[in-house]
């Protein structure tokens, strides 16, 4: 495995952020003085944002429209990224190690641009990336390889010369099919860990445990 550049995911990989996506609707209801049902996150998980907003309106008899609910939930998410989201343990040290060794790195994410930019600045990791690249900019989600191919192009790497670091199975599968090497990072929000472990070239339970191995032992 000869790696010349690294493509990093944000949510669930570098950022310990997945819980906000599950619990933002709960927090939104609480701001309205409403106690959410215990399994609300599971109920909304397979719904689109619009479907989820409609469910909240119908279930809790909210006197607002879908756009109002979506704006309220987005405010909860934006506040979390601006003030609360943390890096996974060892993430910053790993980025610094790769930077010191001269690897170009790009952050490639499907996340909200403002939220991700604010988090990167507050957590002081923006300096490690030559660029922040968003699915909204390339016009495709991570079920297609567009964002990875664009990141590789910007780093002057072929796909087989770039490492994609992700937490989600579908994103790892997309990158592998496009010819990239892949490293999977454990996140408790993803339930398919055995499949993820089998699919990725490298599997990291945590950054702390395998920092040295990831940098020197497998590359």
From TrEMBL:
This is HAD hydrolase, family IA, variant 3. It comes from the Bacteria. GO terms for molecular function: phosphatase activity. The keyword Glycoprotein does not apply. CDD domains: HAD_BPGM-like (cd07505). InterPro entries: HAD-like_sf, HAD-SF_hydro_IA, HAD_2, HAD_sf, PGP-like_dom2. The lineage of its organism: Bacteria, Bacillati, Bacillota, Clostridia, Lachnospirales. It comes from Mediterraneibacter gnavus (strain ATCC 29149 / DSM 114966 / JCM 6515 / VPI C7-9). Keywords: Hydrolase.
